[in-house]
Amino acid sequence: MKRNLLAILCVSLLSVGFVFAQENHGRMEAKYLFSYGPPGSSIELSQPQQIRSDGSSGEIYICDTGHSRIVILDSKGLFLFEFSNSEVLRSPRDVAVDSEGKIYVLGSAVPESPIIVFDYNGEYLHPLRFQGGPDLSSMAMASMVMDGANRLFILDENGARILSYDWLGDFVSEITLMPESSAEERDRQVWGKLALAGEDILLPAPMDGTVYCYGRDGILKKAFGHRGDGYGEFSFPIAATLDAQQNIYALDKHKGLIISFSQTGKVREEIGRYGLGPGYFYHPIALLADDDGRVWVAQGYKDLVQVFQLSAPAEVAPLAPQEPVVVDN
Fold first, then answer.
1. For site-directed labelling of 304, which of 31, 57, 132, 276 has its Cα 20 to 30 A away?
2. Average confidence score pLDDT of the chain
3. Which domains, ranges and CATH numbers included, belong to the chain?
4. Position with higher pLDDT, 21 vs 312
5. Any alpha helices (H) in the chain, and if so which ranges?
6. How many CA atoms does the CB half-sphere of 310 hold within 13 Å?
7. Cα(68)–Cα(93) distance, rounded to whole angstroms?
8. Distance in angstroms (rounded) separating the CA atoms of residues 294 and 234
9. Closest-CA residue to 135 (of 106, 167, 193, 174)
């Protein structure tokens, strides 16, 4: 069903406030707003694996992996649309949107390509036809991001590299990760999810306890954080994101918290805590900071996506998404 046939029935949501911080360290107010996922919520999810946003519209895209569908919310977090296609779409792991509104999904059931393309209304168009670059059969595409120039960056775990293509699938360039390490060391490395930070690329390395920042030329420009048990130190960083003020946020899967860094690499604060209740994280897997001062966190346990307000709330409080109502034209 096309987006323009949907209207949303909304009611106000009672928000519960939480403040998370370590004693004697940076304090960040993280107000729990709402969540999706568990049975009985307005949108029931199954193993959500990724959260992305469309930079032009502010819309939020959730990879509902267990249901093999993409769920789309507006910039306030209200349900807009969803799509699936049992013939071509299977267990989506990542999603990107180009400047024309076409939707690229990593999670293809089409033999000739691991990425498939849909139009703005979720209608299947075609597989992304890769031209040039490494042989597809040798790659394990784990995550992807698309920049404002419609350049697609793909993490190939098998080759320990980031490959870039234009939106037609033509090969552009390759960034070799850990170029000074041996092939054995590179094979042992585990990688998190790609993210963009302006003109740069963020990539967590969980085993190093670090989030690396690469330039488009493949030069390692910065490294955020290090492994340790103390405040502002990582155990297993799995995802990263950039907020509107250019601060870096990184999600630690094992500690169940978010660590925020300035652009200079200074730890700003810790946000969240390991736990099972609302406002707590249990092996979180995906992270997104939006333009309204909120962070979105996904975890497989309880099939949960939680949303927190980090900055001062807007004058109009966020609304609780409810079931869509179909309006006949």
1. 57
2. 87
3. 13-314 (2.120.10.30)
4. 312
5. 183-188
6. 28
7. 9
8. 22
9. 174
Tokens 């789309």 sit at which residue? 72
Section 304-313 average pLDDT: 80
CA distance 289 to 247: 10
Place of tokens 């709330």: 313
Burial 85-122 (b: 16+ CB within 10 A, else e): beebbbbbbbbbbbeeebbbbbbbebeebbbbbbeeeb
Contacts (Cβ under 8 Å, ≥6 apart) of 230: none
Return left, alpha or beta for 186; rule: phi > 0 is left, psi -120 to 50 is alpha, else beta: alpha
Length of the chain counted residue by residue: 329
- Between the alpha carbon of residue 187 and those of residues 155, 182, 183, 193, 214, the distances in Å are 14, 9, 6, 17, 19
Q: Give 42-95 pLDDT, tens digit per residue.
A: 899 999 999 999 988 999 999 999 999 999 999 999 999 999 999 999 999 999
Residue entry with tokens 């070799």: 176
What tokens does 317 get?
A: 């409080």
